Amino acid sequence: MGRLAIGSPERKTPMKITADMLEAKDACDHDVDKFRDLWPDGCTPSLRVALKAARNDLCLYFFAEHFLSAPARKAYYDACAPAEKAYDDAYVTAQKAYDDACVTAEKAYYDTRATTWKALNDACVPAWETYYDAYDIARKALNDSKAKALWEAWKMDHTRATAKGAK
Question: Is residue 136 part of a domain?
Fold first, then answer.
């Protein structure tokens, strides 16, 4: 015995769908939570309910797979096919327009960035070389002073010890 479609002649009263029913069929948590927010006490399927579900991004495909009979599912998929093709075409067109716009903007950005980077290097490299030369001279002078001071201190300790030991 197959599933009874909602509103089928075999069903005498409209079926109420609840979040618990979606959970029992392993609907994703996002859809269950959203469904529960929209219809805390459940809902009876209708065009108004289906539109509200679609506009709140609930997965209608999941509903069709789990609550429609095989013939009703086929009719649903057949009816959706032209809209899905139009959506796919619109998506591809929009994506291409976006990509084309970005390619131009990115090229301009990277061209500008390269020019700016060159200007930065043109200004900074000589300044860095001047800085490094000054640093190198100062560091050499510091190290020479430290070496001389260390040698003088060394001689103080060792000259006294040698002089004391020699007496």
Answer: no
